[in-house]
Amino acid sequence: MGNESWSTTNQVGIAFHIFRRNIVRNCGIFGLQCIRAKSMLVEDNMFENIGFHDAEHTFESAAVKFH
To answer: Which of 14, 21, 47, 58 could form a disulfide linkage to 31, CB 3.0–4.6 angstroms apart?
Structure first.
């Protein structure tokens, strides 16, 4: 969601997110990940069984990513 490219300049209207009333289950590495996100609203979500893999530095492996 949002600005997916590292080389793209900031654009008006990018990186404003609402993530509400979701169920995220069985994500082996990350449930939610944010990079340079602005004006986010994350509320009333349920995350279950997250992070059961023994891995790190896998930045593109989240169930939900905000850029």
So the answer is: 47
- Helix residue ranges per DSSP H, the chain: none
C-alpha 54, offset from chain centre: 19
Terminal alpha carbon distance of the chain: 6
- Residue 29 sits in which domain range? 17-66
Q: Specify the pLDDT at position 59.
A: 64
Whole-number pLDDT of residue 1: 47
Single pTM value for the model: 0.65
Domain count, the chain: 1
What DSSP designation does 12 have? Answer: T
Q: Which residues of the chain have a pLDDT value below 50?
A: 1
Burial 6-24 (b: 16+ CB within 10 A, else e): eeeeeeeebbebebeeeeb
